[in-house]
Specification:
The chain is mainly α. It is built from 6 helices and no strands. α2 packs across α4 and α4 runs parallel beside α6.
Length: about 180
């Protein structure tokens, strides 16, 4: 009898001490699909399932609350997958804008051959990548900026060529 009481006594105090030394429970941080989970084939397939198919998988009829929760989760899943795909396409718009800025800066470089050729290449790349990025994501502001910078560069190049042509035409060559 003493051994049983001693066992209960030790059990009581050991549970109590473990409870006192355990860290406090905190809520885990909110995790979205775009942060941690890559869209896999299973997630994409789940986002397209109908309620009837989910009921067959579950083996029972779902309640209205469960149906609404599944539809809400599918909607969020589709939205996050679309958002993840559009994040990958922002790089093309960013690169196009960088090429547009480089093209305009090189247009005013003091060395005409290097600056002129570099400006033409940068402006052409800005226009091509800008239109591609805008086609993939019409709301990409960087792509729109790259297109505007590219056309400003084209206008400045045409203006410079026109000024050079006017200067060469008016030059009479008074050397003799």
């Amino acid at each position: 009898m003493r051994i049983q009481l001693l066992g209960l006594f030790c059990l009581f105090f050991s549970i109590h001490t473990v409870g006192n030394t355990a860290p406090a429970l905190t809520a885990p941080p909110a995790v979205t699909i775009t942060d941690k989970i890559l869209p896999t084939a299973a997630l994409i397939t789940f986002s397209t399932l109908k309620i009837r198919d989910i009921e067959k998988l579950a083996g029972r009829k779902l309640t209205l609350k469960e149906k609404l929760a599944i539809k809400l989760y599918q909607w969020k899943l589709k939205k996050d997958i679309r958002h993840k795909k559009s994040d990958d396409k922002k790089d093309k718009g960013k690169m196009a804008m960088i090429f547009g800025i480089i093209g305009l800066v090189l247009l005013f470089a003091p060395i005409p051959i290097i600056g002129g050729l570099g400006a033409i290449v940068g402006i052409i790349l800005a226009l091509v990548l800008g239109y591609q990025a805008r086609k993939e994501n019409p709301n990409d502001k960087r792509a729109k900026t790259a297109i505007i910078l590219g056309w400003i560069g084209v206008g400045l190049i045409v203006l410079a060529i026109a000024l050079i042509a006017i200067l060469l035409a008016s030059w009479t060559g008074g050397w003799g």
